[in-house]
Amino acid sequence: MNFGKIEHIGIAVKNLEEAKIRYTQLLGTEPYKQEEVAREGVITLFFSVGETKIELLAATREDSAIAKFIEKKGEGIHHIAYHVEDIRQMMVTLKTQGFEFIYDEPKEGADNKWITFIHPKCCNGVLTELCQDRM
Ligand code: CMX
Predict the structure, then answer these.
(1) 73 CA distance to ligand 1 middle (Å)
(2) Which of 9, 80, 117 to mutate to test the pocket of ligand 1 (most atoms within 8 A of CB)?
């Protein structure tokens, strides 16, 4: 069992409205969805790019992971998300190989997905998300 494709790339932004205008120009398409994930303290905006997506993420609270990230590293690529068919099975497989997950159980993420994250220290500094379609 391996990853299907890069499902999306997450980009942390300070100002979602300004970034929306910039990325609409850059990608030549309007975002297809805006969604808040209150639990994570983020608001997200999705653009389709071929078979994958760009997710812009802005913080809604000072203690959100996006606010902390921008404070420490500035705006930029925040995570890479891979599509998987069976997130729980993939977590079992990767845990046996020493990958550390941020959540023990998959959570409901934006855009109708089950999500979990591998800590960036296990992936050469890249926060890595797994996501499975929510039926
Ligand atoms: N990419 C790379 N490194 C990152 C990172 C990221 N996105 N976020 C944090 N780090 C690094 C920090 O720079 C820091 O490194 P050092 O130890 O070398 O200084 C280390 O990870 C710890 O970071 P921290 O600022 O002390 O923050 P925490 O330990 O509190 O949290 C993390 C780090 C990754 C566990 C947390 O950001 C998290 O749980 N992320 C997953 C949830 C998330 O990002 N949600 C938003 C997206 C929601 C969605 O897509 O639906």
Answers:
(1) 11
(2) 117
Q: For residues 112 and 12, what is the distance between their CA atoms, to the nearest angstrom? A: 20
Q: Which of 39, 63, 79 to mutate to test the pocket of ligand 1 (most atoms within 8 A of CB)?
A: 79
Taking CA atoms only, the protein residue closest to ligand 1 atom 19 is: 72
Long-range CB contacts (within 8 A, 24+) of 39-43: 39/107, 40/64, 40/65, 40/66, 41/65, 41/66, 41/67, 42/66, 43/16
CA distance 25 to 95: 41
CB distance 93 to 15 below 8 Å: no
Q: Which of 6, 34, 9, 10 is nearest to 20 (CA)?
A: 34
Task: Give the pLDDT of residue 135.
Answer: 79
The label of the residue with tokens 């599509």 reads: 83
Q: Across residues 66-84, what is the average pLDDT?
A: 98
Ligand 1: residue whose CA is nearest its atom 9: 69
pLDDT tens column, 81-123: 999 999 999 999 999 999 999 999 999 998 999 999 999 999 9
